[in-house]
């Protein structure tokens, strides 16, 4: 993002946002909220609005093909949908519901039934308490990460990703970016069988990766495999276009090849 300041008043005259994905469109929205109607907000996008929040058409039906699911603790997305009004939360077509099963490549070794206690017993019989340890670990990480909303509410910013992670989860979060997910889970007491049969497939589905992925990213992926997930009916990408419209941003079809600071400029008030 490039911001031009107008001396001698240091008043923001215009802002250029690169990319119209959820990050860029949300930035345009927050810039408009913070600086008001006088600021010109230009958003440069070489492709389609939405970025990773994309859909693909198959047999005349659209399906989520990028960021397909939204966690219930994503307070910003909840607020965006609420403000936009015409958008409605629903169920992602990539996760249409139904029963869960574990397939080892040759046969189904575990399949969900209509009996919760039976499913719980079968999970315990095959994996011990690995699934409980995993659930508690993910919930603890999510609880710490939720602190970010308090920082944002007080207008606090961070100069680096490391500083942000340290403020949320201390050295534990930073260490999680430097070690494989498999090592963290084994240290937690999760069995190798559970990692091979459950964790590894989740990593492949969500990120196309294996359990050597950094533990912090793996925890985010595991949070995306929980039950409390939702999507926007018609495609999550509509949140991006809605935010740009609400921000009254100028969408420019162009590719940005370089960004440089602007040292001069005149702005008359």
Q: State the fourth-level CATH superfamily of one domain.
A: FAD/NAD(P)-binding domain
**Tally of extended strands?**
11
| Spatial separation of the terminal alpha carbons | 24 Å
Strand order of the largest sheet: 1-2-3-11
Helical percent range? Answer: 40-55%
Shape: globular
By CATH reckoning, the class of one domain would read: Alpha Beta
- Name the structural class: alpha+beta
Roughly what is the average pLDDT, rounded to an integer? 87
Q: Output the radius of gyration.
A: 22 Å
What percent strand? 15-25%
User: Sheet bearing the most strands, described?
Assistant: 4 strands, mixed
SSE pattern: EEHEEEEHEEEHHHHHHHEHE
Under CATH, the topology of one domain can be stated as FAD/NAD(P)-binding domain
What is the CATH-assigned architecture of one domain?
A: 3-Layer(bba) Sandwich
Low-confidence stretches: 1-10
Annotation field: number of helices: 10
Keyword list:
44% helix; FAD/NAD(P)-binding domain; 11 strands; three-stranded antiparallel sheet; alpha+beta; 269 residues; four-stranded mixed sheet
What does this structure look like?
There is one protein chain. This protein has about 270 residues and is α+β, with helices and mostly antiparallel strands. It has a domain at about 1-55 and about 235-269: 3-Layer(bba) Sandwich (FAD/NAD(P)-binding domain). It has helices at about 20-35, 75-85, 115-125, 130-145, 145-155, 160-175, 180-190, 190-205, 215-225, 235-245; strands at about 1-5, 10-20, 40-45, 55-60, 60-65, 70, 90, 100-105, 110, 230, 250-255.
């Amino acid at each position: 993002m490039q911001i031009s300041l107008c001396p001698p008043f240091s008043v923001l005259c215009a802002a250029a946002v690169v990319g119209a994905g959820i990050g860029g469109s949300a930035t345009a929205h927050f810039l408009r909220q913070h600086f008001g109607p006088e600021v010109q907000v230009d958003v440069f996008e070489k492709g389609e609005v939405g970025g990773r929040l994309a859909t693909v058409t198959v047999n005349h039906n659209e399906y989520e093909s990028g960021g397909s699911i939204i966690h219930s603790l994503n307070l910003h997305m909840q607020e965006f949908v609420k403000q936009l009004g015409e958008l409605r939360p629903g169920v992602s077509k990539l996760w249409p519901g139904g029963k869960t099963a574990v397939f080892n490549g040759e046969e189904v070794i575990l399949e969900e039934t209509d009996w919760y206690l039976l499913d719980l017993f079968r999970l315990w019989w095959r994996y011990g308490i690995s699934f409980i340890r995993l659930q508690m670990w993910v919930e603890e990480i999510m609880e710490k990460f939720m602190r970010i909303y308090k920082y944002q509410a007080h207008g606090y910013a961070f100069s680096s990703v490391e500083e942000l992670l340290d403020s949320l989860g201390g050295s534990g979060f930073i260490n999680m970016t430097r070690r494989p997910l498999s090592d963290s889970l084994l240290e937690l007491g999760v069995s190798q069988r559970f990692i091979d049969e459950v964790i590894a497939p989740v990593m492949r589905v969500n990120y196309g990766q294996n359990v050597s992925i950094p533990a912090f990213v793996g925890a985010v992926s595991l949070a995306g495999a929980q039950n409390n997930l939702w999507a926007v009916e018609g495609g999550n990408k509509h949140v991006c276009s809605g935010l740009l419209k609400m921000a009254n941003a100028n969408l420019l079809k162009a590719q940005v090849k370089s960004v440089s600071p602007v040292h001069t400029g005149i702005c008359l008030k």
